């Protein structure tokens, strides 16, 4: 990787791009991976979720305190972890398979969340992802191990919008869709006050929160079944399969005496990240000043992230693993994998 320093020189400054030094990676590995519950260390598919946590910590906190450090994709970060950490290094030759299995496994984990309707039952709350060109989706996310559907929904909605739906959630009011191997369940939470100051609780996951008109959501698509544009030109992810059943639910549940406002309510942004580059904070917009929701093409473009090469330094590529691979290589799915703790202790 030409021009990229190995960390630790201290010569960098803001704007330079240094890879994280080995000691930092080892530290993140022991804090986030080796400290994970033992039953989670049995398969790489689960272990990589802990590597992902370490990656978020690196991107959200370590990098902000050390501006010479380079932003990395999860794959690049994971690869560096495997090259640098003694516990992972024995498995480096399987890295491509391990990473591929993880991404496949990730898309099979059930997802739950909520469709929050405003008091008029005309609009629902959607969140927009962080990355450039991200789509709008219902607040939702993957279930943790042994987590109940409704607990996951409450947690994900809290993480992505800062709103606690636990008191309003009714187990029976949900819509469920199965796409491929993934099950998605969204609880319908109706009558949410529009002046609630929504704001995500995680960094760099959500860039915008807005009320969208239900009748402006896409109902079918000629494009890929998951990602596509709605009638307003906005991009949506995994929204359209829920829209027709949602409209039916609204018809059946909308209180008959509900006062419909004279003019139709507009889609409005209620929270937006202030500084895309650092993701340090965002701004809640009071209802009186809520900004109209506009198609992506008319919005200020987000700061493009610097293209990152996924190549490793020659130093990393030539590093010889200090331990030889385990005699029994893990199976393809690495499901029965377990860290060799004796080996790790020996290393220490
Ligand atoms: P997720 O939690 O993996 O998905 O987040 P889920 O909510 O569907 O379960 C989706 C994406 O948002 C991730 O792949 C990351 O790119 C980003 N992301 C999520 N979280 C919680 C964080 C975080 O804490 N920090 C950073 N930097 N990115 C995050
Ligand atoms: Mg989430």
TrEMBL record:
Family: Belongs to the Nudix hydrolase family. DCP2 subfamily.
The protein's required cofactors: Mn(2+)
UniProt cross-references to Pfam families, sorted A to Z: DCP2 (PF05026), NUDIX (PF00293)
Coiled coil region boundaries: none
Comp. bias regions, Gly residues: 1-15
Localization terms from the record: Cytoplasm
UniProtKB keywords: Cytoplasm, Hydrolase, Manganese, Metal-binding, RNA-binding
Principal place of residence: cytoplasm
Low complexity compositional bias, start-end: 291-320
Listed CDD domains: NUDIX_Dcp2p_Nudt20 (cd03672)
Name of this chain's protein: Nudix hydrolase domain-containing protein
Nudix hydrolase domain segment(s): 107-237
Region spans: Disordered: 1-20, 281-332
SUPFAM superfamilies the record matches: Dcp2 domain-like (SSF140586), Nudix (SSF55811)
């Amino acid at each position: 990787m030409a021009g990229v320093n190995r960390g630790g020189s201290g010569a960098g400054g803001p704007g330079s791009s240094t890879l994280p030094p080995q000691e930092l990676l080892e530290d993140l590995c022991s804090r986030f991976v080796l400290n994970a519950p033992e039953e989670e260390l049995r398969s790489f598919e689960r272990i990589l979720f802990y590597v992902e946590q370490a990656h978020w910590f690196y991107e959200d906190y370590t990098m902000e305190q050390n501006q010479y450090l380079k932003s990395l994709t999860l794959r690049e970060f994971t690869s560096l972890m495997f090259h640098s950490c003694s516990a992972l290094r024995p498995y480096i030759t399987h890295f491509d398979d391990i990473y591929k299995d993880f991404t496949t496994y990730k898309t099979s984990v059930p997802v739950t969340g909520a469709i929050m309707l405003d008091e008029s039952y005309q609009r629902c709350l959607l969140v927009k992802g962080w990355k450039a060109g991200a789509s709008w989706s219902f607040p939702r996310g993957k279930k943790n191990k042994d987590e109940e559907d409704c607990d996951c929904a409450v947690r994900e909605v809290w993480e992505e919008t800062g709103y606690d739906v636990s008191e309003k959630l009714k187990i029976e009011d949900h819509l469920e869709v199965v796409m491929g191997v993934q099950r998605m369940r969204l609880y319908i939470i109706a009558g949410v006050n529009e002046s609630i100051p929504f704001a995500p609780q995680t960094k760099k996951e959500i860039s915008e929160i807005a009320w969208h008109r239900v009748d402006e959501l896409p109902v079918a698509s000629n494009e890929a079944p998951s990602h596509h544009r709605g009638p307003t030109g906005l991009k949506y992810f995994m929204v359209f399969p829920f829209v027709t059943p949602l409209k039916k639910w609204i018809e059946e549940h909308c209180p008959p005496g509900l006062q419909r406002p004279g003019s139709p309510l507009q889609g409005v942004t209620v929270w937006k990240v202030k500084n895309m580059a650092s993701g340090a904070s965002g701004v809640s917009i009071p209802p009186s000043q809520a900004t109209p929701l506009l198609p992506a093409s008319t919005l200020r473009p987000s700061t493009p992230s610097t293209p990152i090469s996924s190549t490793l330094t020659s130093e990393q590529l030539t590093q010889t693993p200090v331990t030889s691979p385990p005699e029994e290589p893990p199976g393809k799915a690495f499901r029965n994998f377990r860290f060799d703790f004796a080996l790790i202790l020996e290393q220490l």
